Amino acid sequence: MTDSWLALEPGADPVERARTLRRAHEAFTEAGTVPQPVRPVVAESWRRSVRAGVGPDGTASVELMDDDLGAYRAEHPLAPVMPLIRELLGTFAADGEHLLAVCDAHGRLLWVEGHPATRRRADRMNFVPGARWSESAVGTNAPGTAVAVGRPVQVFTAEHFIRRVQPWTCAAAPVHDPRTGRVLGAVDITGGDGLAHPHSLGFVRAVARAAESQLALLAPEPPAAEVAELTALGRDEALLALEGRRVRLSRRHSEIVVLLAHHPEGLTGDELLCALYEDEAVPPVTLRAELARLRAVLGPARLVSRPYRLTMPVESDATVVERRLRAGAVTAAASAYAGPLLPGSRAPAVERLRRRLADGLRAALIACADPDLLADWAHAPWGEDDLDVWRALAAVRPTAATRSRLAALESELAAPGAW
User: Fold this and answer.
1) How far, CA to CA in Å, does 43 sit from each of 18, 38, 158, 238, 385?
2) Is 349 within the bounds of a domain?
3) Any idea where the OmpR/PhoB-type domain is (predicted)?
4) N or C, fewer C-beta in 10 Å, the chain?
5) Does residue 380 lie within any of the structural domains?
């Protein structure tokens, strides 16, 4: 196959391929092996599904209904481009007895429209607005997998992880925020085997790109004040977006900018020394040299002294997470958390900020007890050994895989010399 994101290569017999995939799916669910001709993107998705505790006989759960669903849809960033998506994809879905679906970045379906008879069939498997179709909830499926991998993808019949979805074929493409590149959700077309054609994947990809172009046109004018955007979560070297340019900061400069962004009122030289260096013997001249180099990177008049402070406002991804947590928007906070703050930093003040942010988010996740949010954290690199989160996940989603991982962690904790 020339393109592994396509479900069928030209000339393939869909009936025979579906039969082969059903046998492969049974082999995987029984023995954990992935035989040919399962595509790598599907095999990897099946493995993620198992790690998330999804069973092949599961079903989607409906999380939002009625007024809650309406309010969430109205505020979602994709709402303004739904007329365009309907114009481009709606007639194709209705005429072809397919469904048009749009999900958010967590795989939650926001809109499901199309042929009435097809909608009634889809209702029986909870393919309805407000239902969560993320990989961590229902396994491999086009909208959930598209937002998981950030790529357009087709899923053909028994490539779906849950058996009751296997009569269907779907193609989906993620929609990105044209300003930040963040995944906002996905556009999906769902129906019969005919959607395994390459045209359906190209079609949803084109619709997603059109939606992104429309979002760029609808974006508000940038504020008059110069605002720098700092990306420091999950990165040892932060990115600073300023006046249309993106600068990769060195590790030390990343630490300085993170701290000054957190203290817009400024920090004295002594305060910065204590914040950055474990060794109290580091001379002030070392810090002054770093600040001089940073001033040259940022440009004139953007870093001043007495106290040291940034003269332009800085919006950091860490601040976004903190602000959403304070507002009680746990799902939004989790979606903005790309990993620990400057994970390689050993600067004492950065370590405190990193720990406080992570502890605040994980405590909120445990308190809200959302199984998908807990699963996302537990299966992330920073959460795979988080015993408290695994215990919380086991309480709300007690699958065999979750219980097994929890038992392994508790065994490690009880082993002599574990701490």
Assistant:
1) 15, 6, 12, 33, 24
2) yes
3) 244-310
4) C
5) yes
